[in-house]
Fold each of these.
Amino acid sequence: MRNLTLLTDLYQLTMLNGYFEKNIHEDIVVFDMFFRKNACNGGYTIVSGIEQFVDYINNLHFSDEDLEYLRSLKLFSDNFLTFLKDFKFTGDIYSVEEGTIMFPNEPIITVKAPLYQAQLIETALLTIVNFQSLIATKASRVCLAAQGDPVFEFGLRRAQGPDAGTYGARAAMIGGCHGTANVLAGKLFDVPVIGTQAHSWVQKFDTELESFEAYADVYPDKCLLLVDTYNVLNSGVPNAIKVFKDLASKGHKPLGIRLDSGDLQYLSVEAKKMLDEAGFTDLSITASNDLDEYTITNLKSEGAAINSWGVGTKLITSADSPSLGGVYKLAASYKGDSIEPKIKVSEDPEKINNPGFKKIIRIYNAEGKAEADFIMLHDEEIDATKPLTVFHPVYTWKSTTFESYTVKELHQPLFIGGECKHNKKTVIEIRDYVQDELSTLWEAYKRISSPKVYKVDLSKKLWDLKSNLLDTKKFV
Amino acid sequence: MRNLTLLTDLYQLTMLNGYFEKNIHEDIVVFDMFFRKNACNGGYTIVSGIEQFVDYINNLHFSDEDLEYLRSLKLFSDNFLTFLKDFKFTGDIYSVEEGTIMFPNEPIITVKAPLYQAQLIETALLTIVNFQSLIATKASRVCLAAQGDPVFEFGLRRAQGPDAGTYGARAAMIGGCHGTANVLAGKLFDVPVIGTQAHSWVQKFDTELESFEAYADVYPDKCLLLVDTYNVLNSGVPNAIKVFKDLASKGHKPLGIRLDSGDLQYLSVEAKKMLDEAGFTDLSITASNDLDEYTITNLKSEGAAINSWGVGTKLITSADSPSLGGVYKLAASYKGDSIEPKIKVSEDPEKINNPGFKKIIRIYNAEGKAEADFIMLHDEEIDATKPLTVFHPVYTWKSTTFESYTVKELHQPLFIGGECKHNKKTVIEIRDYVQDELSTLWEAYKRISSPKVYKVDLSKKLWDLKSNLLDTKKFV
């Protein structure tokens, strides 16, 4: 595990030094991480990267080399640098479970810790969780578009660097992919890796047929052939069929073909006809080449004969929406035992944060479908035996009353008093949990384009607190 | 340095195993890395990431743990895994210098090595060089739009993970940024880091004024204040002016203000008026908030009073064009001493690669401006004392003749016989080189939108080779 303690914006450290000089660095504060707009222009966001965030917190420490570097910047007092030498995270962190589906303005992670600790971790927390949540969400959308066909992550060469390719592959698996081409991700996260041959294999031999024969000879039971190096229908598929017949005559079952260029709808349908006529009716027809959830939806609706999808660049970078705008805002500050809620005003009312130390609950109907979320103060409880009325935090006249419902508290302790409470799960376990989560969502929230907006409401107590703060806030 | 040997697509390893089984793995081949479309929809691309690619090659080896993992996949023969144990790169790699400006279809990096080595390194090479070249190019565009104002890289929290934020910061510095907020990047690459305070600093104090006073007290000579937490013109700027006056009365020179929301044009002009009236006429007015080269161009043309730019999300992800589509194609294969050029045909003629072992030269006019590039076979020479006629590789009737010119060969040896020939330069040295490179380009090629297309032509010998191959290629 690398030491990422300096993976932070310099202003976190200039502020820490300032808090230290003003002797308020030990004040207990509450920060929330949340986003204001779902990933990928969609109707929901899958939280991912929690495990790497936990690793980051567990490894937080300033090495001598780090401190020497900070000293060289001539910004910090010696006392402060000495203080950093013993830095250790001692606070509380509450988080939703990795793989949980979340919605705008909900606290995903809430940190209650001494100011200097809570402030330092902002940047790394956002970097880690924003990216993996983005890619997990993107992958889930691609998988939804593929309607149950297997989707494979193929994007390493176009990822934003080695780690983006590797942790992006992790997130893509969490989002629902069946495997990745990234061998390092396979090793690190114990997930299936897949791959056969590239155009260069086909080119290396004197003819395409020789290249296919050679591949079949080495991998008789794993023979999937790339058929578009020269001409799919005049050369690639006929040569593949020759080789498949030979394999079948020797008792092997060929796997299928891959198309990586051209009109995937037309080519897949024609290739399937040729394979069917040759008696190979149940092979994999894999397509790759600049796919995303929109193209897959189109190809499906046009009747493409593709039953397996390799998705690269546009998945691993979430190309049409390449960042999740997660933020981390001060929500409260303690003076002794009394809590002082904090608010950041903005020209745009939707950007005003929810103050106070909060938690979040999800309301399910009798069939287990999620109906709404409810942001409340941390010490509030819901009596699920009584009807519950929730209302829109901005358009307060919009309200809904639930009669028969169950509730689930989404925050779990990740660290308490600096001690790690995280239950590590495998990537495949998290992927299964994501599927459970998705099954609780009505289809309308999962629609690829123009999804319905999920209800996220505030408790009366929280709404009153926020209104009062806005009314009384001193602005100078 | 981490071991990135498994940072590869599985098909590279299935192919390696196949080549090994067919005993053609030691055949000497030539691969070219090139892209077909410039980064960021622009007129040029700055090559970056060469140093990390060199590190990757120098560290290539399969650890026992790697081999154990590969064995667990049940895809590879024992002989092959034993063979990998002693894997070492022994080939030749030619590359342009890091920071060189390149254009579509030009070989950036050419690898001449035994097939199994040249094939393995494809994915990591592309991952490393595609990403850093993308961000270096994006940064250079942002800096061009800022017309000499300093530009700072602020994007870590929205980067595609920790490494994308850190190596992205390196690339942004190479592209022309003056500094980064990323402390780890500052430490790793010895580049300036910058940062002051966030909204949470302002919120932590009872009033904005107190927060400014506290900051000025701790950093009297580095006082740049964030003025948009409550209200820029009614609160932020007036409070900043109070504090600046106090600082000035004590002999300190305040640095300036930062705007992070609202209408940056209007707010900056009004803030500047207020600062000017208070006698602070030469302060930094820094703007941040979703900036890119297009918004900066607009703000400049509207007369915004901004003279320093913090650019985050849209720089570190190259948001409107988040990948560079670099590819790596087999160009030749040796049989003994004789070279067999290789070509990949495509439905789209522009996608056909240039075959053979090649080099690239740049032609400069008497004033040192780059006029055209010329892709030639590796053993060709240009006699610069004679006129030179170049022609378009697709539209061959388009030709240009140069009378008075100089030439520069762009490829340099990076590895020869596995031995590293790379001359390491600092990031700041590479940034200086990029500025030299940009100064050789006519403005038309650097235009942010709709740039002129730079001429990249083929030598007659290469063009003939390509035409013959296309005419005679056996497709089955």
Amino acid sequence: MKPYVYGIDIGGTSIKFGLFNRQLQLEKKWEIPTNSSNNGESIFGDIVDSIKMHTPDLSQIEGYGFGVPGPVLKNYVQMCVNLGWKNVDLQDRLRDELKNDHIVVGNDANVAALGEAFLGAAKGRKNVAMLTLGTGVGSGIVVDGRLLEGHNGSAGELGHLTIPQEQPIACNCGKKGCLETVASATGIRNIYHRLNEDFTGHSTLYDNDYVDSKAIFDAAKAGDKLAISVVDEAAYYIGYACHVLSVTTDPSVIVIGGGVSKAGEFLIEKVTNEFHRLVFQPTNDTVIVTAQLGNDAGIYGAAGLVKIRG
Amino acid sequence: MKPYVYGIDIGGTSIKFGLFNRQLQLEKKWEIPTNSSNNGESIFGDIVDSIKMHTPDLSQIEGYGFGVPGPVLKNYVQMCVNLGWKNVDLQDRLRDELKNDHIVVGNDANVAALGEAFLGAAKGRKNVAMLTLGTGVGSGIVVDGRLLEGHNGSAGELGHLTIPQEQPIACNCGKKGCLETVASATGIRNIYHRLNEDFTGHSTLYDNDYVDSKAIFDAAKAGDKLAISVVDEAAYYIGYACHVLSVTTDPSVIVIGGGVSKAGEFLIEKVTNEFHRLVFQPTNDTVIVTAQLGNDAGIYGAAGLVKIRG
């Protein structure tokens, strides 16, 4: 095996590059802006240029792993709305320029889960699931050390798990009541606005010009009743999603990442309590933890993908 | 490879034996009663005796696959309440008597899913899930042609998926509101008794001394309003479970088996409609079908296990 591996996380705003040694230790990282104009055609050249600029000798690179924001099946990118891509074969597009056949691709949320399983909060565990609670909700599932892709690349789409609720909110996907509408940063604001309608007391949140999910968590930690009721409801939904992951794929660790996870133990404890109310007893040893790699989970997981898809 | 394979399905009432050729065609099958007294200790000898009686030459047998009613991890049986077994290593118990090291074991519902994926309703598919709606609800998930076991053998426990409901019913597992309480044969009767309380019209079901799930399906097919409302509610729960399987493991086929599945297309059409209301659009090509192997799914899947765990 050659001494270096690239892990590259292609997002709608920026492309993150990580150069790793063969022990998957990060040697250096950087990022460039994503240019999604013209159906994202310039992304391929931008990636090649940036790699060449940072790599004196391409023959030292074992392979390149990529995470992309859309469904992927057997290294083939089906659709990335944020990049403008449709039916993209990254191996075909990059092989000649990089002089390398070892190019592997996964969905970004799946790859992040793999990163946490390899080197983050679930280090060394073989059966891991991850929920990334950001602007939306992503998820990834690792089974026996391998990424679960499903029959058409849509495994681990917990963001679009329908949660039976009295007042389901419309989701970008066209459905109503998806986990994403009540457990993402946006979703927590949705719950706040709904509960606020019937709330009769005073809330410290009323002093804010703009109430975001961080403000809600901060107020809840300080004892604000309205904020606590919002967090409790969100924790139930997240705990329910963990239960769904448990009865289907039975992970030993469920990792919670994304901006919402910055609420830390305050959130994890509530989610764990909800999970324990729902869990099938023989598998109640599953633990729920916060992510450790932050925004780097994608590059770590992408590099890991090079190792497992030799 | 030797010319024959055994697939053996150990149930609480009977042990089913199937002798297959190397193309996994069934050559002969039979069953014996299960003797679970004395912590199921005599089961091992009963199995060996029955195999020897039906097999002129044990050296012609490539291997033995087993399905057992409890969680299994890497061929190790953790617990089978119905058999009286706890921490049983079937390889250890049978290797010497059968003069064979190739002894593989899986959970019965998982193994049934594998049977339907290899040779039944989902023949040749690599990503398959199965719900067995009998007295309880079992389930199994096949990913890339392999059984999903999870970190402690509890993957595919959809029977204990909690369904958010207004009046959840107590389950044998100690929780309330499990899928099993509303989607098994018993569960469909539970829904009938609940809906009947508020039903004001006349139902043809009132003419029956005992209302079982078959009577409910027959009455619904004949247009009985109460029976239709029971079946519609059960179909929603089963459709929701299919949705949960879809957003987690993304199978191409979901197989519905067990006694309840005898309701056939009448049920499948309603379940499919509910599933399509909930499905994440990129994976709406998943099909829901009835099982084809009936009570033989277990022996087929157990024989298949010998092939995939070489």
